[in-house]
Hints:
The protein has 600 residues and is an alpha+beta fold. It is 32% helix and 23% strand. The protein folds into 2 domains: 4-365, Glycosyltransferase; 381-598, Beta-galactosidase, Chain A, domain 5. The protein is built from 13 helices and 24 strands. Strand 12 (456-460) and strand 13 form a beta hairpin. The protein starts with a helix and ends with a strand.
Amino acid sequence: MQNPALELIRQAAAALAPHLQESGELNDPVFGEPAQYGTAYYAYVNAVLASTATGDERRRLMDAAARGVHATLRHMLDPDDATPPAADFTHAVGSPGFRNLRDFMWPPVMRTLRLLRRLGDTDLEPMIDKIRRVEVPDAFSERPPVNWAAVWILGEWQRIQEGLSPYDRDDVDKWLEPFFSDDPDVDHGFYRELRQATQVEIDWKNAIDLEKGFYREPGVPNSYDLWCRVHLLELLAEGYDGVYREPLEQLLVSGVRRSLGVQLSSGSLASAYRSTAHLWNLTGQCWYFHQAARLLRDSHPELASAADAAALRSFAAAKACQRPTGDLSPVENALPANWRVGHEVYTMDAHYVSLPLGYLATAVLDGFTGEGSAPEVGSPWTHVELEPVNRSLIHGSGWSVHVNLAPFKGYDSFGIADITLGLNRRLRFGGQTHYGRPDAEPDAHRLSNQLPFTLGIGVRRDDRSIHPLSAMTPTGNRHASGSGARLTAGAEVNGLSYEIEVEIDGSTVRIVEGVGDLACSLFVPYLKDRGDGQVTSVSTADNRVRLTSGTEVVEIVAERPTERVVHLAHGYESRHGLVGMVRLDLSGRGPVRYEIRRVS
């Protein structure tokens, strides 16, 4: 049987191999030093590959895995850790920052030990002794309900299962309680840091909404909802049978439904705040949907089938992150690593490729191959989320359209956040498009001064100035509803009443956007170059913009004629690559009707 997932892991791990040091540390290909938890996950990936190899190759991979675990345990056993891996690098000069990130190292260490035991490594006693001596939870930075804590709780459950922990199931129950209890303490650690950075106060009682299947933290990012639920699902899959097993089983069902709702037709995860369109979003979905399908096969067969299809869609998107040079990009473009296009300050190849490879490797161990064709999104349906999320999507006929009425400043656009046109298609809209690079030295997760753009309208004032709605701040009166092929939404924004209607009709999406009886422009930010050798060409004719990328042709057609067409081809980027911008200054006033057509 073909195993494309395993082959992708092999190729990407081989690309990182020249950066593995004799010490066991994995250096980042750009910055030449270890980054975050890359060493731990690369060790695990090597152990998984060893389980598929024989002879000298198996021994080589086992040795690389063992050296990586020992290097990781040096950090975990030293509370003062004078030489921790870098947590981030500034955009302007690549200056490193540091913080305790040991929380994320624990599961890959334990998984690697398990595999080395299974493979018959006879020299594990020094490693086992070190693992016994790790002080949990003191070694770690965060406490529940911070999503980081879900990671080390999983790792400690694995240590309990291996008979190496002083703790038991009752202790795991106590650690899980803040995720599910009413009014947990959130005034500590990273949760407090996020509240201060986002200036968002907590207005919900529970960190996890069991009914809606959503883990919440300030800014409500889709990525870290997925992150937390991945590790909690793995705890369930690992045989956790404590007090919170029933809530975890409920979260499995509601969480899969939410994840299906926020997966775009390309296999990507809908854009929302930090870590959008990162590779680990994709392989995390692969593992999550694959494992969920296994657990739901008997009780919810239709949901399991949908999860199987979603796993293949996310894998298709992950494959598209492979650069022409064979290595993987940590974000959803294939541009060179040292361009850092679409990167956060904390996005580096060493850990944000090793981590997603680890997710994919776990899926492979659980039987995922990536073989087969993922089905396109078929009959139209909507996924509507009101407070505190205020983001909604409509899917159908290969399309997904995502409308964000609560954008996070410095990251998200107001209005249309994403439009994807189907599987394995380059052209798309959204993905946190912005003008200019981030601030020179921003702190992770804090606001930047980027000007966000999206496919959508802007207001033209009497003084001829033009103001994109994408950069405006909604102030309330948000509403959204949808059924079948139509989604409607609206909000007050900068004193204007904004309304949008989206309808999917086969190969066409029809959109109406308006802010009253005002003159408007239509902005068309398009993906110009994602680093795969294709560059989008643009032609315009009055109210029509035609985008051609290889065999793909997409047209955006406004109903009204234009007074002026402006094409700005440089200075923009998104998570998906370098972006250009076309602006249509439309004649007349009032709501703007336009269509997006998949020509080929």
